[in-house]
Design brief:
The chain has six helices and five strands. By secondary structure, the protein is of the alpha+beta class. The chain folds into two domains: about 45 residues, no CATH class; about 160 residues, 60s Ribosomal Protein L30, Chain: A. It has a five-stranded mixed β-sheet. Strand 1 and strand 2 form a beta hairpin. The radius of gyration is 33 Å and the shape is elongated. It starts with about 25 loop residues before the first helix and ends in a 5-residue tail after the last strand.
């Protein structure tokens, strides 16, 4: 070294960081991803059928329970609630619907009985719980109460009854199917006009649907409008019986929608 020369002093400067907010964006992003995942799960659950929703409910009521028949502790069918529990839940729902439908049928009949003009034809309006749901039938007799003979034109009393039925149907969210039926007697002039019992039964079902709609039933509530001609006879042993000529309104169980 010469003289008083001192060794050079090297000062290293640290580059500035992001300060207090350096990792905050990562936390915010993680919260966003978590929220989106939760939203996705909620939307997925809302899109599932009744059985899956029931299974999910069972799981969150007791998520640690092991279901011997289900093969695990998950919440999807086969992963959580046992087949027995699933069947029981479904049966409870159907029984509840049956009670509601029976009550609806009773209210319709009570209103028909309260109006003198309907008393003579009450026995032609029938209610029955079937595997599909509540079946309401308007069954013809010899005097063609509901439709003009050989026609899809509804008589005034039939329109009134359908409007009365519609007032009750709008109270329930269940899907509705309307069916038209004829007896086995060939339609007059079918060979000439090409208009047969198939067209007649379909047109009568459509006419009944229209009046139910006029009575307040929304279009989205109808699931099918079908004409069966004489393929589903009410009295198979008497195919020409007028009781085979009928309109069937089926209020379906939610499981059958």
């Amino acid at each position: 070294m010469e003289g008083n020369d001192l060794p050079p002093i090297i000062v290293k400067k640290k580059k500035g960081g992001h300060g207090a907010h350096g990792g905050a964006w990562k936390v915010a992003y993680a919260d966003f991803v978590t929220a989106m995942m939760a939203l996705f799960i909620v939307l997925w659950v809302l899109g599932q059928d009744t059985k899956t929703k029931q299974s999910i409910a069972h799981y969150f009521q007791n998520p640690t329970k092991i279901y011997p028949e289900g093969g695990g502790s998950g919440f999807l069918p086969g992963e959580g609630a046992s087949a027995t529990e699933m069947k029981k839940s479904t049966e409870i729902l159907i029984e509840t619907e049956k009670e509601q439908m029976n009550e609806m049928g009773k209210e319709i009949m009570d209103e028909l009985k309260s109006q003198p003009e309907f008393r003579a034809i009450i026995d032609m309006v029938k209610f029955e719980i079937t595997p599909e749901g509540l079946q309401i039938e308007l069954t013809e007799k010899e005097n063609n109460v509901f439709f003009e003979i050989g026609s899809a034109k509804l008589n005034p009393k039939a329109i009134q009854i359908l409007h009365l039925i519609a007032k009750q149907l709008v109270k329930m969210p269940n899907k509705i199917s309307v069916e038209g039926h004829t007896d086995a007697r060939p339609y007059s002039y079918a060979k000439i006009t090409g208009y047969s019992n198939w067209e007649l039964s379909s047109d009568r079902a459509s006419a009944a649907r229209k009046e139910l709609a006029n009575g307040g039933v929304g279009d989205e509530q109808f699931s099918s409008i079908i004409g069966y001609a004489d393929r589903k006879l009410k009295k198979p042993d008497d195919p020409l019986s007028t009781e085979n000529r009928r309109i069937s309104i089926i209020v379906k169980f939610n499981e059958n929608k």
